[in-house]
Amino acid sequence: MDLGNLYQDVILEHNRNPRNWGELDATSRRADGRNPMCGDEVTVWLKVEGDRLADVSFVGTGCAISKASASMMTQAVKGKTRAEAEKVFAHFHAMVTGQHDDPSSDATLGKLKVFSGVSRFPARVKCASLAWHAMREAL
Ligand code: ZN
Question: How far does residue 108's CA lie from ligand 1's centre (Å)?
Answer without folding.
Answer: 24
